Amino acid sequence: MCYMFYYFSYVLSTKVLNLAVNNTIKNIKLIPEPHIMDIVKECPDKLVKEPKSLSEDEKRMLVTQSSRLVTEYQAKQLETHAQKHWDLFYKRNETRFFKDRRWTTREFDELLDDQNLSSDVEVSTSRTKYLLEVGCGVGNLVFPLIEERKTKFFFYACDFSPRAVEFVKQNPLYDENVIKAFQCDVTKASQLNDVIPFESLDIVTMIFVLSAIHPDNFVGVFGTLFKLLRPGGVLLFRDYGLYDMAQLRFKPGHKINENFYMRQDGTRSYYFAEDELSQLVKSVGFDVNECGYVHRRTVNVKEKIDTPRIFIQGKFVKPATVTLNS
Questions:
Q1: How far apart are CA 203 and CA 113, in angstroms?
Q2: CB count in 10 Å sphere of residue 288
Q3: CA distances from 239 to 91, 135, 197, 200 (A)
Q4: Helix (H) or strand (E) holding 305
Q5: b or e along 181-212 (b: 16 or more beta carbons within 10 Å of the residue's beta carbon)?
Q6: What is the mean pLDDT of residues 204-225?
Q7: DSSP class of residue 198?
């Protein structure tokens, strides 16, 4: 009889304890992890000048890549059919591949209305400012800016892929009073100048774009953008940095030239060194406001992937005293 009494007492006390614990848990208000991440993301990324130090294994990976290069014929075919490969990319992925770049105003306060473009030039807040996004894709940079109404820019948006430009024009936010999208090969200066007059832009953005272009065209592209900017205008730049994990993972048969690679889908990617990029923009007349490597981690919780990434970021200003003779 005593045994039965203690048994039922134990069962009853356990149920009461569980009920109390459950009610307590329901009333606890935890700070969700995304909220913590949002606080961190309010701070701009820290730029560093020194490239990543490679381990011995990473050095061997780079040496192995050079054991079998892309053939000269294949490299020429990749250049000839570059537009085709990007058009197929957007045919496969449509608007799903890239996330909206809502981080751009955190990194580049020039995109906000209350910021002057440089300390060397005064910009009237009453006039419309003009921005060109080079390599707009499907509009992952311009449409968040339009949607959040953070700027009073008129946007030009160009892309190499005609299919990408059509996706931009199909977006519900597309309004030709605010944005003009057009197909363009930025390595051909006349195609840009046919749409945009010289010295008419306040800002140019190049976000993960130049890396897809052959290195022989880098100086020419920067030179064209320099001419399109007003004196005091700024080029905002972000792309893949030297020794990014994506570079180290390429296998033999994908390397075209130094720091220049072919992806599986036929698109290409270049990985920039800080001193190299600074010299490139200086050679066409830009002043380097800032330039450095960004070290970040790409985390996919579902797939349990945590990948270190290296990007390069810069702000390059056209001197206020420059006048074109064109």
A1: 12
A2: 15
A3: 23, 12, 26, 25
A4: strand 305-317
A5: bbebbbbebebbeeebebbebbbbbbbbbbbb
A6: 97
A7: T
Residues in contact with 280: Cβ distance below 8 Å, sequence separation at least 6, in sequence order: 218, 219, 222
Backbone angles phi, psi at 158, to 5 degrees: -125, 150
List, in sequence order, every residue forming a beta bridge with 268; answer none if it has no partner.
262
The residues near 229 (Cβ < 8 Å, ≥ 6 apart) are 199, 201, 202, 203, 204, 235, 318
> What is the rounded CA–CA span in Å between residue 181 and residue 253?
36
Who contacts 121 (Cβ-Cβ below 8 Å, separation ≥6)? 230, 231, 232, 320
Cα–Cα dist 208/269, whole Å? 9
Helix or strand run (H / E) with residue 246? helix 245-248
Read off the pLDDT band of 42 (50, 70, 90).
Answer: low
Q: Are β-strands 201-207 and 129-134 bridged in parallel, bridged antiparallel, or unpaired?
A: parallel
Report the C-alpha gap between 163 and 84 in whole angstroms. Answer: 10
* pLDDT for residue 118 is more than 90: no
Of 87-101, 164-178, 193-207, least confident by mean pLDDT is 87-101
Inter-residue contact 225 to 188 (CB < 8 Å) = no
One-letter amino acid at 211 equals S
Beta bridge partners of 294: 311
Distance of CA 188 to the CA centre of its chain: 23
Token pair, residue 90, equals 């957007």
Give the residue-averaged pLDDT of 309-324.
Answer: 89
Q: Which residue has the tokens 């751009």?
A: 104
Q: Directed axis angle between helix 82-93 and helix 162-170, to 10°?
A: 40
From CA 270, how far away is CA 259, in angstroms rounded?
A: 6
